[in-house]
């Protein structure tokens, strides 16, 4: 829905060059963000604030919760009970590859069709209702946006299918940094990379603990519930969501 951007080297794609509604007031009270206008820096004409987005279940529907249990012929409860407690987290942090993930995904070491799982995941990737339209508007209005995601190398499959890079850069991916939200260092590293004051960043995530971690380091945090609520929250903060 906008100009195709090249993914930065921190998370290269395979084919293409990351409750505060009644909460917005709560967020503003917790974090005291300014009401943003069309702020730019004098050095490079950079428009502020910078927007950081969680990906799974904020931008893209997470197939793990919607499709993967059926792939294994299990309920979600059964899947959670028999999967290895840390294998996926290790995969997200880049400490194991997908071959090792397949070896230890289940606590009992049972084998499964890894390629079938990947195809299941890819079929399940889709934009959350209304989110792509909002991203298009924000991109058209020249806001700088970055993914800030806990996800493994399979972000490449998301990019291949949905081309998220039309709207934001895959700048902060846990599998490359070795850090996951809500680790404060992940947020602080992002601020250092962006060379921006935390109050000039807005972070959006569907998990409150990740939003709270952002607020703790001075970033403005918004708890994602749906696209319309996010649009309203951003508008109340002075973000231009017209168009």
Please name the defining characteristics of this protein.
globular, 243 residues, HAD-like_sf, Rossmann fold, disordered N terminus, hydrolase, alpha/beta, 2 domains, HAD_sf
Describe the structure.
The chain has 2 domains: 50-61 and 126-237, Rossmann fold (3-Layer(aba) Sandwich); 63-124. It contains 13 helices and 7 strands. It has helices at 24-31, 63-66, 68-71, 76-82, 87-92, 98-104, 114-124, 131-140, 155-162, 174-177, 184-194, 208-216, 227-236, and strands at residues 39-40, 47-48, 50-53, 145-149, 169-173, 201-205, 220-223. It is globular, with a radius of gyration of 18 Å. The model is unreliable at 1-32 (pLDDT under 50). Keywords: Hydrolase. This is HAD hydrolase, subfamily IA. Pfam families: Hydrolase. One of its GO terms (molecular function) is hydrolase activity.
User: What is the CATH topology assignment of the largest domain?
Assistant: Rossmann fold
**Tally of separate domains:** 2
Radius of gyration: 18 Å
H/E element string?
Answer: HEEEHHHHHHHEHEHHEHEH
* Strand segment tally: 7
Task: Tell me about the largest β-sheet.
Answer: 5 strands, parallel
Name given to the CATH homologous superfamily of the largest domain: HAD superfamily/HAD-like
How much helical structure, as a percent, in the residues?
Answer: 40-55%
Q: CATH first level of the largest domain: which class?
A: Alpha Beta
- N- and C-termini, Cα separation: 13 Å
CATH architecture assignment name of the largest domain: 3-Layer(aba) Sandwich
In terms of structural class, how would the helical and strand content be classed? alpha/beta
Low-confidence runs? 1-32
Overall average pLDDT: 87
> What is the molecular shape?
globular
Report the β-strand fraction as a percent range.
5-15%
Strand order, largest beta sheet:
5-4-3-6-7
């Amino acid at each position: 829905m906008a100009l195709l951007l090249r993914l930065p080297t921190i998370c290269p794609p395979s084919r293409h060059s990351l409750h505060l509604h009644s909460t917005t007031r709560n967020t503003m009270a917790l974090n005291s963000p300014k009401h943003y206008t069309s702020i730019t820096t004098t050095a490079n004409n950079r428009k502020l604030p910078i927007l950081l987005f969680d990906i799974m279940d904020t931008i893209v529907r997470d197939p793990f919760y919607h499709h993967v249990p059926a792939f294994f012929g299990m309920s979600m409860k059964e899947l959670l009970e028999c999967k290895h407690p840390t294998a996926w987290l290790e995969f997200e942090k880049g400490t194991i590859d997908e071959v090792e993930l397949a070896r230890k995904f289940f606590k009992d070491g049972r084998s499964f069709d890894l390629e079938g799982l990947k195809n299941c995941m890819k079929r399940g990737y889709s934009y959350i209702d209304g989110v792509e339209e909002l991203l298009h508007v924000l991109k058209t209005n020249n806001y700088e946006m970055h993914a800030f995601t806990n996800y493994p190398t399979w972000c490449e499959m998301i990019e291949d299918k949905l081309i998220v890079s039309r709207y934001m850069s895959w700048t902060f991916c846990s599998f490359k940094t070795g850090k996951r939200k809500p680790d404060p260092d992940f947020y602080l590293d992002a601020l250092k990379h962006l060379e921006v004051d935390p109050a000039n960043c807005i972070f959006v995530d569907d998990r409150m603990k990740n939003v709270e971690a952002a607020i703790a380091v001075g970033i403005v945090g918004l708890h994602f519930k749906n696209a319309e609520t996010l649009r309203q929250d951003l508008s109340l903060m002075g973000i231009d969501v017209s168009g």
